[in-house]
Amino acid sequence: MSVVLNFKSHLSELFAQALREVAPDVAQTEVLIERPKIAAHGDYACNLAMQLAKPLRKSPRDIAQALIAALPASDAVAKVEIAGAGFINVFITTAAKQGVVCGVLQAGAGYGHVHIGAGRKVQVEFVSANPTGPLHVGHGRGAAVGDCLCNVLHAAGWNVTREFYYNDAGVQIDNLTLSVQLRCKGVTPDDPSWPEAGYRGDYIADVARSYMAKETVEADDQHTTGKGDVNDAEAIRHFAVAYLRREQDLDLRAFQVEFDVFSLESALYSDGKVEETVKQLIASGHTYEQDGALWLRTTAFGDDKDRVMRKTDGGYTYFVPDVAYHLDKWRRGFTRVINEQGADHHSTITRVRAGLQALDAGIPRGWPDYVLHQMVTVLKNGEEVKISKRAGSYVTLRDLIDEVGCDATRYFLAARHPDSQLVFDIDLAKSKSNDNPVYYIQYAHARISAVLAQWDGERQALLNADVSLLNSEYETALLQQLIDYPQVIETAATELAPHLIAFYLKDLAADFHSYYNASRFLVDDEATKLARLSLICAVAQVMRNGLALLGVNAPDKM
RNA sequence: GCGCCCGUAGCUCAGCUGGAUAGAGUACUUGGCUACGAACCAAGGGGUCGGGCGUUCGAAUCGCUCCGGGCGCACCA
Fold this sequence. Notes:
Elements: H1 7-22, E1 33-34, E2 44-46, H2 48-56, H3 60-70, E3 77-83, E4 87-92, H4 94-107, E5 121-125, H5 137-155, E6 159-166, H6 171-184, H7 202-212, E7 216-219, E8 222-225, H8 233-254, E9 261-264, H9 265-270, H10 273-283, E10 287-290, E11 293-296, E12 307-310, H11 319-331, E13 337-342, H12 347-358, E14 369-373, E15 376-380, E16 383-385, H13 397-404, H14 406-414, E17 422-425, H15 426-430, H16 437-454, H17 473-495, H18 499-518, H19 526-550
Parallel strand pairs: 5-6, 5-13, 6-9, 13-14, 15-17
Antiparallel strand pairs: 1-2, 2-4, 3-4, 7-8, 10-11, 11-12, 15-16
Helix pairs in contact: 1-3, 2-3, 4-17, 4-19, 5-14, 5-17, 6-7, 6-8, 10-11, 11-12, 13-14, 16-18, 16-19, 17-18, 17-19, 18-19
This protein binds one RNA strand through helix 2, helix 6, strand 12, helix 12 and helix 16.
């Protein structure tokens, strides 16, 4: 008997065959296999008969009857029945389900990986904060969601590149330079002369102090030393950017997020890529001069108004290097790019895509993809927290990591649908109790580790356990969870919804805790003991795999 | 005013490309450690899925509309 590890696709194939025989005319109909919510409705259900009722002008139940008669035999299928309006419910044999234990133990860390990506390249750009201050909670959400998404895509068979884009040029950096310079001169933000757009956080003073003390900072393998000259704006700019990039790098390291590539906006200028993009846009005929500025006719590509490319002062708006940057991504061979960013930047989507279309470079209309996360509100003692000492006007990612730890921060920031606003409750994330889902999941893993540690056998023996002994309701539920895991990864990857992993793990942990309370593992009967241990060993493996996708530790003790 | 996102139990949220009786956690009420870790488990109450109309055999899910909340509408990023 061959081991079936993906029942959904297996059944889908069986029904497709039956369909070709029963109704060749509509054999193109997509076969959907779903998991019913109620156990009495079987393990899998197919609604094909109901879909075909109209085109075939027959009753769903008659069609279901015919489909069942034509269904090829399979070792994995125990029973097929018609229910309700014409659902076809399929029951999987327990033997086939029990096979998953061996499957998990053999595949190990690779269990759950699927191949929908087929090794294709995908670039995920996330965080991409301006080097003008420490990372804030919003960047944290971007980091958690983006990193988890990358892990999920990798597990789904994609060849992933993580990229961070630094906007180290432009007006924001001018403001940063000015702010640091003023601090060097001893001017503080409460002084009346402090500019409206200036940065007010305490960290600006740190940068100024470090620059004046001629310290050396290291960022991206480059060493930058403060010149100590209050009047050299260029030196201050250079130093401030390096200083803050290092600071952000340290924030990311503390959050255990790593990038493959860092791209700099300034490099797009020095490499001539911005100029080249402008020339190409002009050549494509979608630009015009008006009021002393150069405009791009983005309205021709779905934007609600045209955009300025070159300002009257001769500088380019951020939009031009953005287009140049994305053209560069395309030329690097990324036919798929996903930009993860805060929803407050959503207006750039239309603009960047319009700019790329205007280039006539053969880039598809909907390229690149976007995942936008909504805003984060931080709550403490039931009240919203809006400021931090260091940054002044916002809560930093570092504040959260220091207060609740890396694991809990990552979990909470990744465990929500990106589309919904997030309330980060510091008290909840900190609580080492049953109301904290992170500990709930980690505790399940630690419990399994503790049981296995007390068992004096060889792990290898678990591979030969008689899994046919696993047939209690608790065991059946866990087997089904293990079977579902690859499907969860597939859905999370196609929907770009990493939060599904977090919910899955909570469900898996819940089923395990129930099992734990209802049964003993280290029993006298050797066969029973091995069977149960092999199951919980497989559960622990899947927990490790899933937690790794979230970037959360799976501790053996806590 | 225009665009994007959201509205599901008191609170925080799931609900996969429409499916059968809408689910968790938390809070509240009860019960379970001389048993592998009680950071756990079991049981109970709690809902016009924001309102309305439509499409469909079938809608929390799709479409339209209204109400409410967030974000964005720069020659800032």
